[in-house]
Amino acid sequence: MNYKNYPRRHYLQYPTPIEHLPQLSNYLGCGVEIFVKRDDLLPGAAGGNKTRKLEFLVADALKEGADTLITCGSMQSNHCRLTASWAVKEGLDCHLILKSGSESSYKEDNTSGNYFLNKLLGAKIGDIVHANSDLDSLMIDKADLLKQEGKRPYIIPIGGSNSIGTIGYVACAEETIAQLRAMKLDINHIVIPSGSAGTQAGIIAGMTHINDNIQVHGINVSRKKIEQENLVLNLANETAGKLGYSDKIPKDFVTCYDEYVGEGYAIPTKEMIETVKLFARLEGLLLDPVYSGKAAAGMLDLIKQGKFKKGSKILFFHTGGVPALYSYMNCWK
Length: 333
Hints:
The protein is an alpha/beta fold. The protein is 41% helix and 15% strand.
């Protein structure tokens, strides 16, 4: 694929495993088989899917001569934690702009989890900004201040989800198909958390180019269905164009579900809480409460609704984020 023409840091030395979840499959009793792509095992401090994006984003930053990375996210952002970790490995400074959580009856412990790890990694964190703040503008302002100090900052968007970062999941699509072929495993559906859109967009762009017909289902963690589908489609086509793919990705290639968001981003739902417990106790697999927990809850509901035909094989993408569990411990008390 043409992504091999782009600079890459190769943090990932081996494909992440694809594992069968037999206990969960049997427990559901719906005649489907569930497998998981373990992107929670990607390298970086405590792992997670953003490492795939950062392979290309950090390489681009270094090509531009940057000495500082700037990015943004929520208090429990996995992307911020992984950006901070790879900045350490590359000898770069890292500035994080973090926003407070959404208003709800539940308040997580923001002193633990990813926030604690960001501090431990030495990331520079200023004042926590309001949830509705314009993070892009704040990152530009921070970059301007750093330039005045003689620094060479590089801005990474929220979630690492631009056309450069999304290339990481185009590469992942190729990796996944190669694994499935080697395993002689016919997957009918992929289920994936859909947030800043880069992961789902990259998988769709990659699968389209490979001409594989596995259906990709995104489970939203924040936005409404139409808004998320448009975001994914536009980013998938922008990334495909960057890689020189000539055909536009059709709108009907993108499917997202917004029924599992609950009150809002990072706000727990009863279904997420039960699903995280179920995966832990049946498969010894830890899901995070913000992305993979809600996405898995959505997948189980779709299975129970009969969305997937009996005999289907489903590949669930575990995108990581387990450190956030420590900030949400009250959910399981």
